[in-house]
Amino acid sequence: MSDDTQVKLELDDIQRGVLSPRPTPYAATYLLFRVDDRHHGRELMRRVSAVVTSAADTTSPLGETWVSVALTYHGLRALGVPQESLETFAWEFRQGMAARATALGDVGDSAPEHWESPLGMPDVHVVLVALAPDNARLQAAIDRARPAYHALPGVTAIWRQDCHALPTETEPFGYRDGISHPAVEGSGIAGSNTLEAPLKAGEFVLGYPDELGGVQNTQPEVLGRNGSYAAFRKLHQRVGAFRRYLRDNATDPADEELLAAKIMGRWRSGAPLALSPDRDDPGLDADPYRNSFLYRQDDPAGFLTPGGSHIRRGNPRDAAVAGVPRLHRMIRRGTVYGPPLPDGVLEDDGADRGLMFAFIGAHLGRQFEFVQSEWMNDGVFFGAGDAADPIVGSGDGPADFTIPRRPLRRRLLSLPRFVVTRGGEYCFLPSLSALRWLGDLTD
C-alpha cells in the first residue's frame, strides 16, 4: 500500500493539466502548431512557460481553468533538441502514434491513411490545450495564451478542435463521463475509488519512483523530470448506429437501457452496475462512494458487470487478469466535440461528433498501449478469446458480446464498430522548468 507521505511532488513545476480532473461542465480547445523556425519555436516555449498553469496553482483567478502545452517527437526535433537527448525518450513516443497503428488496432476505417489532416503527420509539433468551466473563461484563457504564439511567423497554427459539455453533461452515446480518477501519491488530489490505494507518482510523472521502484527520466534530467507522456486521440462516434443496435436487439425500452448498461458497465447516469445492478440510480451521482467498488470478491464471474464491458476492461480493479491492473492505470480525460444527435434519431446525420481523449502516464508501453492492445482489442485476459471491447474495440468486421446470466448467458451478435479513430499523437508534457530550458536552447 502506498504511503502519501513518502513522496513530495514538485507541484509548482508540473503542468496542472497532468494531475487535475477536468471541471464539470467544461469547455475546451485544442490548438496544433507547426514550427518552421526553431528560434521562433524556442521563443514560443519561453512565452508559454509563463502561461501554462502549474499543479500548485489551484486558486487561479480564472478558477478551474488552465492551459497545457505538449510537444511531439517531431516538435522536439524542430526545436533543435540534441539527438542524444531525443534518444532517451520512450521509444513509442519517438515512433509516434501513426507508426503504432497496427499494434493499437487502428485499422480499416481507423487506419492513419483515413485520419483527419494533419493528425498523425510530422507537421504536428506543439499541442496547446485550454480548459475551463464555460466558454467565457475558456476565451479568457485563450486570450491570455494568444500573445505566446502571436507575431511569431516561424510558428503556424495548423488545426483547431473546439470541445464542450453537452447540455446533458454526457458523452455523445448518452453516458455520464469523467467519473473515474486515480489518486496519485503526493498530488493532494483524492482518487474517485476509496478502495484503491494511491499510485506511486512515477506512474504518471517522470523523475519519481513508480510501482516497480524504477524511475523514468531523460537526459538531461531537467528536460524530463516533472513531465508526463500523453496519448491524444480524436474518436468519432457513430451515435445513430449505436442507438439502432440497441433498439434492434432489445425487447423493449427498459431492455435497451439494460443492454446499454451491460455494454458500458454503468447506467447512463454513471451509476455502476456493481452498486446498482437492476436499475439506473441517478441519485448515486451525488454519492462520494459511487466509484468505490471491486470485482474479485463481489462479482468474479461478471454477473453484475460483464468482464467484457467497457469500464471493466479499461480498469479491471482487483480482478485476476493478465497483467497487474495497478501497472496499467492511466489518467483519462475526455471532452466532447460536435453537435449532439437529436433524441430518438436512429440514423447518423453526417456531422462529426465524438470525444477528444487524452491518456496521461509515464509509461506509454505498459499503460496506454497495453490497455489498448491487450484489454480493449482482445479478450484473452478474462477468458473471452479474441472478443474486443464493445465500444472502442478494433477490427474491420462485426464483433460479439457476451452477458453472463443464469440460467443461460445472453449473446449480442455482430456489433458494428461504433467508434472510429480520426487521428492522434503521442506527446510529451514538459515541466515548466523544461519549457524554459527548451526556450534557452542554442545551436
TrEMBL record:
The keyword Metal-binding applies. It holds the Pfam family DyP_N. The keyword Ribosomal protein does not apply. Its cofactor is heme b. Keywords: Iron, Metal-binding, Oxidoreductase, Peroxidase. SUPFAM superfamilies: Dimeric alpha+beta barrel. Residues 27-144 form the DyP dimeric alpha+beta barrel domain. One of its GO terms (molecular function) is peroxidase activity. GO terms for cellular component: cytosol. InterPro entries: Dimeric_a/b-barrel (IPR011008), DyP_N (IPR049509), Dyp_peroxidase (IPR006314). NCBIfam families: Dyp_perox_fam (TIGR01413). Belongs to the DyP-type peroxidase family. This is Dyp-type peroxidase family.
